[in-house]
UniProtKB/TrEMBL annotation:
<comment type="pathway">
    <text>Lipid metabolism; sphingolipid metabolism.</text>
</comment>
<keyword id="KW-0443">Lipid metabolism</keyword>
<feature type="transmembrane region" description="Helical">
    <location>
        <begin position="134"/>
        <end position="150"/>
    </location>
</feature>
<dbReference type="GO" id="GO:0046512">
    <property type="term" value="P:sphingosine biosynthetic process"/>
</dbReference>
<keyword id="KW-0472">Membrane</keyword>
<comment type="similarity">
    <text>Belongs to the alkaline ceramidase family.</text>
</comment>
<dbReference type="GO" id="GO:0016020">
    <property type="term" value="C:membrane"/>
</dbReference>
<feature type="transmembrane region" description="Helical">
    <location>
        <begin position="81"/>
        <end position="99"/>
    </location>
</feature>
<keyword id="KW-0479">Metal-binding</keyword>
<feature type="binding site">
    <location>
        <position position="201"/>
    </location>
    <ligand>
        <name>Zn(2+)</name>
    </ligand>
</feature>
<feature type="transmembrane region" description="Helical">
    <location>
        <begin position="15"/>
        <end position="37"/>
    </location>
</feature>
<feature type="transmembrane region" description="Helical">
    <location>
        <begin position="199"/>
        <end position="222"/>
    </location>
</feature>
<dbReference type="GO" id="GO:0046872">
    <property type="term" value="F:metal ion binding"/>
</dbReference>
<feature type="binding site">
    <location>
        <position position="68"/>
    </location>
    <ligand>
        <name>Zn(2+)</name>
    </ligand>
</feature>
<feature type="transmembrane region" description="Helical">
    <location>
        <begin position="49"/>
        <end position="69"/>
    </location>
</feature>
<comment type="function">
    <text>Hydrolyzes the sphingolipid ceramide into sphingosine and free fatty acid.</text>
</comment>
<keyword id="KW-0378">Hydrolase</keyword>
């Protein structure tokens, strides 16, 4: 009877963990459509391809939920490939031209074509060594952090600096949760705390909206110098925490 009770408890804990992992992706379904709505005036003036990016953000949450429901290889690949193309979309639209490879000059069309080719090749390679996919994707995240740090040093925009500081803290907490879950999994299971991956889901879902607004502000300085972007927070600017987005201001008037 004791063995049966232990097995039942273990099964129940596994079920609870799966349910928690599934529902930790709910923020993706909320933030994706909400950010699309809030950023719509900016998207219409900057690039309608940004709609694809926000759709991919929502789809990433959907595939992540499917993966944690089934724990299947297909679910894993769908989850990781969606993240790959989400990052690729952000790179192709928002990376400042000064960071382009020298052989491309500052031609964004050629740069976007290069990103598509690299993403297609990476999608194929991801099936060959799936165990390293997650580490490779986080390595891309480190490069994004590098770009953001460089822009932090350049800018005098206090709002942009604040967003970078907050997003870096959130990302660091998210990455710590993910790497701890990967490297110390047996320890967390031993103390019956198997929710670090769920914490990673929630924190990283907050990091992306912050990152999108940061990149939009950085990009505007290069690509939309005659436009004023104002950082706002949903649901209210006065709340201590909120979801950041940009609001289009009037054109700068010249004499």
């Amino acid at each position: 009877m004791e063995v049966f009770d232990i097995l039942s408890m273990m099964v129940m804990m596994e079920m609870v963990m799966v349910v928690v992992l599934m529902f930790s992706n709910v923020t993706f379904f909320i933030f994706g459509p909400l950010m699309t709505f809030l950023m719509r005036p900016y998207i219409q003036q900057r690039s309608r391809y940004l709609y694809v990016l926000f759709v991919l953000f929502t789809v990433t949450g959907l595939f992540s939920m499917y993966f944690h429901m089934t724990l299947s290889f297909l679910g894993q690949m769908l989850d990781e490939i969606a993240i790959l193309w989400l990052l690729a979309s952000g790179y192709s639209i928002w990376l400042p031209r000064c960071y382009f490879p020298a052989f491309l000059g500052q031609n964004r069309s050629r740069y976007s074509s290069l990103i598509i080719i690299i993403s297609l090749v990476s999608t194929f390679l991801s099936f060959l060594r799936p165990t390293i996919n997650a580490y490779a994707l986080n390595a891309i995240g480190l490069h994004i952090i590098y770009i953001v740090v460089q822009e932090y040093k350049k800018t005098k925009n206090k709002e942009l600096q604040h967003l970078i500081e907050v997003s870096t803290v959130i990302w660091a907490l998210a990455f710590t949760s993910w790497i701890s879950d990967r490297l110390l999994c047996s320890f967390w299971q031993w103390i019956n705390f198997s929710y670090l991956h769920s914490i990673w889901h929630v924190l990283i879902s907050f990091t992306f909206p912050y990152g999108m607004v940061i990149l939009a502000l950085v990009d505007s300085a290069y690509e939309m110098p005659n436009k004023t972007l104002k950082v706002r927070y949903w649901p209210r600017d006065t709340w201590p925490m909120g979801l950041p987005y940009v609001e289009m201001g009037d054109d700068h008037k010249s004499c």
